[in-house]
């Protein structure tokens, strides 16, 4: 673990070059704050009206059309806002985030050039893979009622970067620093911060800006949980390389989620 020094520069690097703990925390703090509107949008958006459908009194089966029966079936499934979701415990809800969000973001991270000219400017596999892990870890923390921002930053630091970023006792941000963090987070979240409808374009834009923010700790991204040797070897081959990258990202994400839950259970028994 690197200790912060008085010689650190504004970007979190000391005179020897490596980014220090204070620098990593400074990058993660607005990132964590920006995940809140994004995760809320992913959790609470209900384009099919399933939450209302799950609560309403339904007519007899023979009085419902085929598409209504299909929507009722979805409303009974384990989706946020449904009765089935309310009956799930924190670990089950965490796994929902891993399966649903994780598979999608891992797949995106596995396909270089997915976003065309925009995302091709990023080291996409590493950066979007890190965004995927950080988003799911923040969701896992939320499902376990860990809402303190400093604690979530420490969670990401421990699981993704193998650093102890736990704040000193009674450590608080100054009013000026808090305002700066809020401004950076608002820029990352974009329109989602104002509660606008979570369209694909807005969600993708937020993920892109979060990935760009993590470039500040690009040298640390190699420490995050990864797949094994087989997926790593596959990722180097033509054609099947995408499959290898997907397997590696998916495996790493599951490891991160498990490590995150273990960390939370240890800190909050």
Short key terms for the protein model shown above:
269 residues, 0% strand
Structure description:
This protein has one domain (21-46, 81-267). With 269 residues, it is mostly helical. Residues 1-16 and 113-121 have low confidence and may be disordered. Helix content is 60%, strand content 0%.
Task: Outline the fold blueprint.
Blueprint: H1 21-44, H2 50-55, H3 66-75, H4 83-86, H5 90-110, H6 124-143, H7 149-161, H8 175-189, H9 200-214, H10 229-234, H11 241-267
Helix pairs in contact: 1-6, 1-7, 1-8, 1-9, 5-6, 5-11, 6-7, 6-9, 6-11, 7-11
In short:
The protein is mostly helical and 269 residues long. It is built from eleven helices and no strands. The chain has helices at 21-44, 50-55, 66-75, 83-86, 90-110, 124-143, 149-161, 175-189, 200-214, 229-234, 241-267.
Please state the overall shape, judged from the principal axes of the Cα atoms: globular
SSE string: HHHHHHHHHHH
Number of helices: 11
Unreliable stretches, pLDDT < 50, 5 or more residues? 1-16, 113-121
Strand content: under 5%
The averaged pLDDT comes out at 75
Structural class: mainly alpha
Largest sheet: none
Our measurement of the CA-to-CA distance between the termini, rounded to an integer number of angstroms, reads: 25 Å
Helix content: 55-70%
Computed Rg: 20 Å
